[in-house]
Amino acid sequence: MSRASSLLPPHAPRRILPLLLPLRLSSSSAAAAVSAPALAMPRRHDGTKPPPRKWKPKATEASFSPSSSSASAAAGIAEPVARMTLASQEPPRAGAAQMWVPRGYATSAAGGPDVTSASASTSSAAVTAEQGGVASGKLSSIFKAAPDFEVDNNTFTEAQVRATFYPKFENEKSDQETRTRMIEMVSHGLANLEVTLKHSGSLFMYAGHHGGAYAKNSFGNVYTAVGVFVLGRLFREAWGKEASKKQAEFNDFLERNRISISMELVTAVLGDHGQRPKDDYAVVTAVTELGHGKPKFYSTPEVIAFCRKWRLPTNHIWLFSTRKSASSFFAAYDALCEEGTATPVCKALDEIADISVPGSKDHVKVQGEILEGLVARIVTRDSSAQMEEVLRNFPQPPFDGVDLDLGPTLREICAANRSDEKQQIKALLENVGASMCPDHSDWFGNNGLDAQSRNADRSVVTKFLQAHPTDYATKKLQEMIRLMKERHFSAAFKCYWNYHKIGSLSNDNLYYKMVIHVHNDSVFRRYQQEMRKNQGLWPLYRGFFVDVNLFKATNKKAAELAKDGDTLLKNINGALDSNSSAVDGLADEDSNLMVKLKFLTYKLRTFLIRNGLSTLFKDGPSAYRTYYLRQMKNWGTSPSKQKELGKMLDEWAVYIRRKYGNKPLSSSTYLSEAEPFLEQYAKRSPSNQALIGAAGNLVQTENFLAILDAKKDVEGDLRSEHGTTPSSPASTSVDVVPKTEGLIVFFPGIPGCAKSALCKEILNTPGGLGDNRPLHSLMGDLIKGRYWQKVADERKKKPARITLADKNAPNEEVWRQIEDMCGSTKAAAVPVVPDSEGTDSNPFSLDALAVFMFRVLQRVNHPGNLDKGSPNAGYVLLMFYHLYEGKSRREFENELYERFGSLVKMPLLKSDRAPLPGAVKAVLDEGISLFRMHQSRHGRAEPSKGSFAKDWAQWEQRLRVTLFGNAEHLNAIQVPFEFAVKEVLEQLKAVAKGDLKTPDTGKRKFGNIIFAAVRLTPSDIVGLLRKVSEKDDAVNTFLNETRLEDSLTKAHVTLAHKRGHGVAAVASYGVYQHQEVPVSFNALYYTDKMAALEAQLGAVNGEQINSRNEWPHATLWTAPGVAPKEANTLPQLAAEGKAKRVPIEPPITITGVLDFY
């Protein structure tokens, strides 16, 4: 039984996975045969919290209880992990000949190599070329000849994943829909909800000293050197004097079993996130068996067992297995989302969760109070039993090195080696020791190669795709890369010489490392859609590194490989894909449900302060204010918090601009200025302290910050986080344009979308937009110079009029200028967009693009010279089309909604139209491919000046012939222009009048929950009071004197308050949210200062609802200056004869709704 499969109960469905042995291609390419065991459902993120708290299984609700067979099956978990051999062995030797080559071969954002030169190293860890028996001259010859390696029928390739992290799955539904589905699955006994802390650091992966150390998109640089050092130091802390031995055993274990571990690396030397950590540390977030097939991720109980066996740090984990606990978790987050820090968040979740597993490291002690967020995901129902079994069999291990001298710290080493990055890397690797890192070739190459670049030629990927696959894994990797290239996904496939295989290199046997670097998160979403169409596709992983071997075989051997490979692939295709897709693929969407929940105290620092620095210093305080207000609006931040944060951020802007002038503050060290400012601001009042979360005790990093080049920042740690998926949207509201304010109508479109014709129709419409404000239009093609500056100048002259900005507004830079104009001239703005379905990565469909091109090519005497006489008309439209690339239609519309509050759609295509003719689609696809090649090679150069000039001329001609040859179709699919004008005018008039609501973008607004209560309808309360007053004249007199019926606008019975009863108490009502609750009133209490009804709560679905208040009641009225909470004293006042109690017999029952406020 495999390590992973032993965690599953006997009755659980198992994957059918091949026990693939690598085909022995030659003596140089042979690898150790390792079986690929079956694995549990993929699981994600794990991290830290302190040993003091103990895990606590709670009683399960009666609605579901694990079967005894399931519980007993989990007992087998101890046996497989116990077989993880820890026998003493000789540290693995670096057997490959090595030579000196410059470090830093990582994919850059532009897809090119990131290479710097280096001189020869004298490191003791470097192994000379002579030791491997390969002369540097021969290696140089192989490297130079590699581009001429030709693929023929005897060329084969073997590819193996070397390190990877979880796929980046995005829920198809909104966060609120995902939350609801998660609760449903838990309540029906289908799954558990698992929640982990989100530490604020960088991804680090380790596959053994030969397997390599990797960051998210790179290897062989300071990121991975820091990761190796921190990992080595963790072994010293855990194992003490045994550390060197255990490091070597761990390396050997990872190599023999082809396992990689993923960690969240949290340090103060790699740039600022939300808070500088007090200590440098890491927590294991994933363990992956790579085998010789598809990566298989350990479940969370397996990760805990693995880490405790090797004494590696784990995250704080909570499991929620009942409807009540799962609902309470989300309610707790909603209560803490705007002011939560590590201590109250962990305390609340400990009280709510059914199982709480503290991490190895206390977030407060090593990171601090500022908590980035939580990650919630669906896991198998058996996970609770498995986790309990692991915790019984694997207690928290001791830390034998706590009292020992562990040598210089990471910060001390970086501080002592400040000359350059290479020196820091060398010092870190030498300090960690040979037992942990005996081979430095990933960083410094191999001696003797005269600074030969490790960057392989670009043809390697093409040859890899052309060669025959030797096994299933290679075939699936080829399929993935081929699809991504065919779909033009924004990703780089960079190949580098694999220096761990130098001793096996020959002209016919080449070894590479491939880095799959996804440049845009939209690629993951688009690839996910491809997986829905083809569930046999492997997932697109984050942190994706592949070992590639290209080799020639003799005719006889080639025939054997081809025959064996075909048989193997046929067997696997028939058996594996059909059985595994339902579990591993996206056929079962529920298995991938996950939601990230971040806290405002973290986002304040990273998104509002750090990411706003460029806007603040480049565009000034006004633009900065627009930026941070838009961010908070997108997040759904409560109005009170927006007001508080706005005041603080305005003060920050003045403070930092006054101190730095026009010299920008570095985002990598922004906390050096932000943290002291926040600390002083927090000290002014308790409300400021709650707003900031925590401040003070700043860790000074200037003397030990790792030397990082922002231009070569492949990991993105020095860049702004370009927004997040908001956990909530702007609220749905009516956007009214006051008559004293202006209106800017603009057009995020493409030439040919009929904006100029539309503007003329609007100008000629009697009465304009129906509110008598003057209209004027500025046509972009007739204005020289800076168009948007001209619009701003004209608006300042007459700010109350309606401006038709007759120019395409295709990107966020223009939108930002329009937002600034709105602020400076007191105007609203409304975008008018052509209505189109869009594609996976563009808001405009190919049908729409074809129509736009067809219209442009029919123009004559166009003011901007973009008409049928333009030789590059097709190219220009493709350029505009690609300005929108990377956004789906929904993302495009949502962003416009969130920025401007409304959106007008101009009808374009008939819904019942015929499909686009094949010839038209083909010529458009050809143009898109040509544009991307031209852009990649020549940037924004004109098509006539590049190496594709002839291709462009030929394509432009084919485009015209094809479009005019299909003129009948292109004319037939368009809606009549008169109809489009009528629809746009109606929508614009609705915006001007305030009748148009901002559509729901599918995201929910989470407020900052303060209390839970049963909401009552005022009219029902008034009816009750009238019945009481009919029987009691004193009550009637009291009601008339206080005019209570007129003043009663809302009423509720408070159940629990965050301040008085705690977050967990408030959150416990989450399971009943929006449910109707019967409330019986049996007495009226009143004095000359207040009045309240005594309440008795009923049940929901048979479960009694109880208030945490000592006296459940509904406050009806208080005199001016009397706080509503004073109503709690009425029973005592009545007992003392200072208040009147009027019984209500029989009690009157009113139905209310339970909700949060």
Low-confidence stretches: 1-134, 571-587, 708-739, 995-1006
Helix count equals 40
Question: What global shape is seen?
Answer: globular
Instruction: Say how many strands there are.
Output: 30
What is the helix content?
25-40%
Structural class: alpha+beta
Arrangement of strands in the largest sheet: 24-23-30-25-26-29
* Number of domain modules: 6
Largest sheet, described in full?
A: 6 strands, antiparallel
The radius of gyration computed from the alpha-carbon positions, rounded to a whole number of angstroms, is: 33 Å
Distance between the termini: 52 Å
Strand content: 15-25%
Q: Give the rounded overall mean pLDDT.
A: 79
InterPro entries: tRNA_ligase_1
GO biological process, one term: tRNA splicing, via endonucleolytic cleavage and ligation
Biased composition (Low complexity): 60-72
Protein name: tRNA ligase phosphodiesterase domain-containing protein
Describe this structure in words.
This is tRNA ligase phosphodiesterase domain-containing protein. One of its GO terms (molecular function) is RNA ligase (ATP) activity. Residues 60-72 have a biased composition (Low complexity). By secondary structure, this protein is α+β, with helices and mostly antiparallel strands. It has six domains: 155-164 and 459-578, no CATH class; 189-396 and 409-439, no CATH class; 599-692, no CATH class; 739-834 and 888-909 and 975-996, 3-Layer(aba) Sandwich (Rossmann fold), CATH 3.40.50.300; 845-883 and 910-973, no CATH class; 1011-1156, 2',3'-cyclic nucleotide 3'-phosphodiesterase fold (Alpha-Beta Complex). 39% of the residues lie in helices and 16% in strands. It contains 40 helices and 30 strands. The chain has a six-stranded antiparallel beta sheet with strand order 24-23-30-25-26-29. It has a five-stranded mixed beta sheet with strand order 13-3-16-15-14, sandwiched between helices. A five-stranded antiparallel beta sheet has the order 11-10-4-12-17, sandwiched between helices. The longest helix is centred in the middle third of the chain and has 30 residues, at 555-584. It is globular and about 110 Å long. Residues 1-134, 571-587, 708-739 and 995-1006 have low confidence and may be disordered.
